[in-house]
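Q: CDP-diacylglycerol--glycerol-3-phosphate 3-phosphatidyltransferase, please. Structure only.
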Amino acid sequence: MNLANKLTMLRILLVPVFLIFVALNTPLGTVTAIVVFILASLTDKLDGHIARSRNQITKFGKFMDPLADKLLVTSALVSLVEYQIVPTWMAMIIIAREFAVTGLRAVAASEGIVIAASWWGKLKTATQMVAIVFALIKLVYSPAYITYITYIILGAAVIITVISGVDYFVKNKKALSTEN
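A: Structure for CDP-diacylglycerol--glycerol-3-phosphate 3-phosphatidyltransferase:
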């Protein structure tokens, strides 16, 4: 278990901490949830950098890093739908893509293929995380311009999410081949 993988595991462990603070539904709880979410999001960038710079890229990391991102983003989106900050349809598009790509990765893994995060996937994750931070800020501070910025970034996140999902399936259609 190298440092990059430990950071990935830390991100997973921060998900319930984030959920506890966002569930408090108080200004202090929400601000704390924002800080926890940002810290967890930063571990995503950091773990990848460490793994590449130290030449410590592992199959565990290739599998767990995207899963950790999905857990963090999905938990935040579900919470934000509950607070009526993120429209359900936007959250469902994002979550459906996450399930679809996870399924693709599982099928590929059964064929001995590891699908690493693509450039589109990384852009998708970054855009989603920025959108979620703005949506969380909207819980405690909601002037009109924050609302507009939030929905513009959420819209961009949905579009990039769809593009990245299509990209994964097009580039990895071999993993879904019915031929043996």
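A: Brief note, in case it's useful. The first helix runs from residue 3 to 24.
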